[in-house]
Design a protein that fits this description.
294 residues, alpha+beta, seven-stranded mixed β-sheet, six-stranded mixed β-sheet, Aminopeptidase, 8 helices, 2 domains
Length: 294
């Protein structure tokens, strides 16, 4: 059964403006929105008052167990007390303490330095990017769809149709991201569950009938989060990644999303260049993936 979406915080960035104009409170709203996207099917999002916790009670993978959108105290004693409470919380969940900070927005301003000093280790940087409407309006229009290429927009399907779509989506994601084969079942199950909800939308591109590229769009509360954008290596170099991304953006804008955003690894220069060329710009600096040292 799909998990219900929690109540949205009050600080939603209602104006579809420039990402550079976002306030700290609005970036924390995006952190809530992204966490809710990941919790759409079976996970939990908790409001900690000064951060958002994403938790999966069945999967120990750190990606699904983390806090973001931190507004912690600057005072050293109060900060240390809050950090101790975080350790207790993650211990009660039997998970490794895991923080995704937003440089330039989360508090205190030296949050990352303090966490590193307390034993957290960076396991790889990521960048949050949001669509700049001014740049997107001037961006290259939707690329043409080549011969032999078909586009499927998949939404609100169940039963055999959902299972078939999930198998195709899972095949592309496993090939695109080098995911371990044993995670195929979890990926397909999440797709099946997501496709039964209003928020989850998938775009599947086939080449001569074979699944080749995918993108996921999760849209609710005035925001659209794009994720799972990938192309099977066998079909790369044909512009399919650009095609599915551009289609997802067009659909998000048609759905009146005020904000369309995504995350990308700092070292994925190909994806970063693609998103930049379409009209996405970084929000803040590179966000370290901070796990407490074992």
């Amino acid at each position: 059964m799909a998990a219900p979406l929690g109540s949205a915080p009050a600080d939603r960035p209602d104006r579809p403006g420039r990402p550079s104009d976002l306030t700290a409170a609005e970036v924390r709203w995006l952190a809530w929105h992204e966490a809710q996207c990941h919790a759409l099917t079976s996970r939990e999002v908790r409001d900690l008052g000064d951060a958002w916790l994403l938790h999966d009670e069945t999967d120990r993978e750190p990606f699904w167990n983390r806090i973001a959108g931190l507004a912690w105290p600057t005072d050293p004693a109060a900060f240390d007390r809050r950090l101790g409470e975080l350790f207790v919380l993650f211990a009660s969940l039997d998970r490794i303490p895991h923080v995704w900070p937003s440089p330039g927005y989360d508090q205190p301003s030296d949050l990352i330095e303090r966490l590193v000093a307390n034993g957290f280790v960076d396991h790889g940087g990521g960048i949050l990017m949001a669509l700049d409407p001014d740049r997107a309006d001037a961006a290259v229009p939707l690329p043409p769809i080549p011969g032999g290429v078909s586009v499927e927009r998949i939404h609100r399907v169940t039963g055999a149709s959902a299972a078939e779509a999930a198998t195709a989506i899972g095949a592309v994601l496993l090939a695109s991201f080098g995911v371990e084969p044993e995670r195929r079942v979890a990926i397909e199950l999440e797709a099946v569950m997501g496709l039964a909800t209003d928020a989850y939308h998938a775009i599947l591109v086939r080449v001569d009938g074979r699944p080749a590229a995918v993108a996921r769009r999760t849209t609710f509360a005035g925001g659209s989060y794009l994720s799972s954008i990938g192309t099977d290596p066998e079909f790369r170099g044909r512009g399919l990644g650009r095609l599915v991304t551009a289609l997802a953006i067009a659909d998000a804008r048609a759905a009146k999303s005020r904000w369309t955003y995504l995350g990308v690894s700092d070292d994925n220069q190909v994806a970063r260049s693609l998103y930049d060329s379409i009209g996405f710009v970084p929000i803040g600096g590179v966000s370290p993936d901070l796990l407490l040292r074992a």
